[in-house]
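Recap slide: Steroid 5-alpha reductase C-terminal domain-containing protein, sequence and predicted structure.
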Amino acid sequence: MVRLFITTASHPPAVARGLPIELECDANTTVADVKALIAAKFPRFYPARQKLSMKNDRAGLADEKKIIDVLGEKGEELQVKDLGPQVSWRTVFLVEYGGPLLIHPLFYHLPQLWYGQDVQHSTLQKFVYGFVLLHFLKREFETIFVHRFSHGTMPLRNIFKNSAHYHLLSGLALAYDVYRPKFSATSSYITGTIREDKNFLWICTGIWAFAQLSNLSTHLTLRALRPANSRVRAIPYGYGFTLMSCPNYFFESLAWAVICVMTGSLAAGVFAVVSTGQMVLWAVKKHKNYKKEFGKEYPRGRYAMIPFIL
């Protein structure tokens, strides 16, 4: 048996006033099992709120690690930190993408409320409205049925920060800009220009649909690599992955670039730049992690996100 002493670096959290405690574990006990034992004594201190680490070490221990491999047979003191109230990543994504799905119909169908006048929607506005709703409905579908998350939860307070990007930029700012009278069917910005040319609009639609379907395809490939309820990582192959480590980000950026070209909207441009910039950072980090984890097995010649450039 391994004897563990569970302490805290400072005062015990409000959800576990009885700390420190002593636990006994067998050779097969994992970090996740220890968290469950702590939660059994302090029900409000559920496992997702806990971060277990070695004494005086900030790095958290992976849930799948066996205690005996980490500490040895004699056991040792472990410190637990309260990460605060948690919310599942699935819920976070549903809230993030749900914002634009509510905001865009409000601006599109109630122009009097925002602009003080009715708006005769142009074909361009109708296309963009459809693109936005379909994009975020797709993201909600993927969140429920496709994505598998390596981390189950995140701090509840972060949901507001994460949602602001979508609710403010692709929600309020984009909706207010593209459904206003400037883009209406009677506006000089639209009439007599390429923005009312049906050939132009349908070409843009084709590129946008290609990007969206390609993005979905890469998400399905990534799903197939990870068994349910696991953190297994493997090298992705197939459509899109021949040239890029993160083709899903490339295709999503392409879809938003199409909306920028179609509309010339400042709000669309700002959102596209901000979101693409964030995806570039994620892609570079994932690309480096792939090469570090798989070494020589990882295909040479792949770019992080943009073929032949980045």
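The first helix runs from residue 31 to 41.
The beta strands are 2-7, 21-25, 50-54, 77-82, 86-88, 153-155.
(End of recap.)
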